[in-house]
Design a protein that fits this description.
With 456 residues, the chain is an all-alpha fold. The chain has 19 helices and no strands.
């Protein structure tokens, strides 16, 4: 919550310091850096958590670190050769050096986070995430003094990534395995090869689903369009980032120790609560997206509201699904994760590219992408529930109720805006959404409070 709040509070300042074109170049680079970082250890970082033997987990840790460093070196050399030939005026040596530093820190973060998670150090892992996110935002604010363009955004991202890694190293401290303990690495990697066979392609496809549209749009549109679209996507996915950071490590750790059945009731309660709490705010956003973005971010970003309104529905469903893949990892059904991601990526990315290639406008392509993602995420929820043995009927009841609440909030917001103006409509809609989500929170949290009271 702290990391997402820090990022959100800085946005009004950052979006007034940097132009949509600057964010477009930064977003295209970010898509590459985060993609390489996510696959830089071939997803063996997940095996650090699931490996039961501590010494073998230590071997995996240093194996991941060495592998990640090698990938960074190769990617940096290739990236330097390509970028300086494509546009040397934009990608100078200093900027590319910052990109390499950003990439190195992002890769090293994978095994460090896994080691903290293995030991149940959720507070330490969270602090490192906060340092990364808040450090990037603060760095971008300060670096605007140096260069108020894409270079300042890149430098800030590198600062945040390095801060997160340093803090993670500090928290790991003496618990880190002995340096150089890599005996039997090949055999251990072979025993955990399912992560490479299934989890690595899954990660690549999920990154393609999230990042490839930015690169595709860069080929069809202007830097300003890339910036507006990418930041609309980024903003509506802030809640999913919160859900992922808060829920994925805890659910993964608990399920890895006790099985997916042990967390079934918690998973169902979380999904129901988040769907019902988020739906009213979704209705408000869809009713007046352009005005909302203009108020918060400035007039230059009003058009981003159009894309945010179309992407908001799948973004809410992504809040419910983006941490469920760890359950299938524990259940040894990484193959199901991969198949689901193939469907989601082909439908959304393929549809987005196909529409743009056929000459459709960016709003039309975004709407098609949104519809495909809604279908894909509903499929993910259904399949995960089935494979984990959870009852499906409560899920569909919760989604139906969320649709009703979202429609109510949209109707009140749009109707009030029509009668009394957009600002009044947003105020009334936000008040209704706050009341509805508050009621849901109390009803969802009450059983948890009761369990805690009984335990005490």
């Amino acid at each position: 919550m702290v990391s997402q709040a820090a990022a959100f509070l800085m946005l009004p300042f950052l979006f007034r310091l940097y132009s949509p074109e600057d964010f477009g170049r930064w977003a295209a680079l970010q898509a590459v850096v985060l993609a390489v970082a996510a696959v830089g250890v071939l997803r063996y970082d997940l095996a650090i958590v699931t490996e039961q033997d501590g010494e073998r987990a230590g071997v995996l840790f240093w194996g991941c670190t060495a592998l990640g460093g090698t990938i960074v070196l190769v990617a940096s050399v290739v990236g330097f050769m390509v970028a300086t030939r494509i546009d040397p005026g934009v990608w100078d040596v200093a900027t590319l050096g910052l990109c390499a530093l950003w990439l190195l820190a992002a890769v090293l973060n994978q095994p460090l986070q896994a080691w903290l998670l293995r030991n149940g150090r959720f507070g330490a892992a969270s602090a490192a995430v906060v340092a990364t996110t808040a450090g990037a935002g603060l760095g971008q604010l300060v670096m605007a003094i140096w260069h108020a363009d894409h270079r300042g955004l890149i430098a800030g991202s590198a600062i945040g990534a390095v801060a997160g890694v340093l803090l993670a190293v500090l928290f790991c401290g003496k618990t880190l395995p002995k340096l150089g303990s890599m005996a039997g690495l090949a055999a251990i990697l072979g025993q955990h090869r399912r992560f490479v066979i299934f989890s690595l392609p899954f990660t690549i496809l999920s990154l393609a689903r999230e990042r490839a549209p930015v690169l595709i749009l860069a080929a069809f549109g202007t830097p300003a369009q890339v910036g507006i679209y990418s930041q609309a996507w980024r903003l509506v996915h802030i809640p999913s980032g919160l859900a992922s950071s808060a829920l994925r490590p805890v659910i993964f750790h608990s399920a890895a120790r006790s099985g997916v059945g042990s967390v079934g009731s918690l998973v169902q309660q979380l999904i129901t609560g988040m769907a019902l709490m988020g739906a009213p705010w979704l209705g408000v956003l869809i009713a007046e997206p352009g005005l909302l973005f203009e108020i918060v971010l400035g007039e230059a970003w009003r058009d981003a509201g159009l894309y945010a309104g179309m992407l908001a529905a799948p973004a809410l469903l992504f809040v419910l699904t983006n941490w469920l893949d760890r359950l299938l990892d524990v259940a040894h059904r990484q193959d199901a994760n991969l198949k689901l991601e193939v469907v989601a990526s082909v439908l959304s990315v393929g549809g987005f590219w196909g529409l743009l290639w056929a000459g459709a406008s960016l709003p039309a392509a975004t709407f098609g992408q949104s519809a495909a993602l809604v279908l894909a995420y509903l499929l993910v929820l259904t399949v995960v529930y089935k494979l984990c043995g959870y009852p499906v009927s409560p899920l569909f009841r919760a989604l139906s109720a969320a649709t009703v609440l979202g429609g109510l909030a949209w109707g009140v917001t749009a109707g009030t805006a029509l009668l009394a103006g957009g600002l009044v409509g947003l105020a009334v809609g936000a008040g209704l959404a706050l009341a509805l989500s508050g009621i849901v929170a109390l009803r969802v949290l009450r059983p948890v409070v009761g369990v805690i009271a009984s335990a005490r």
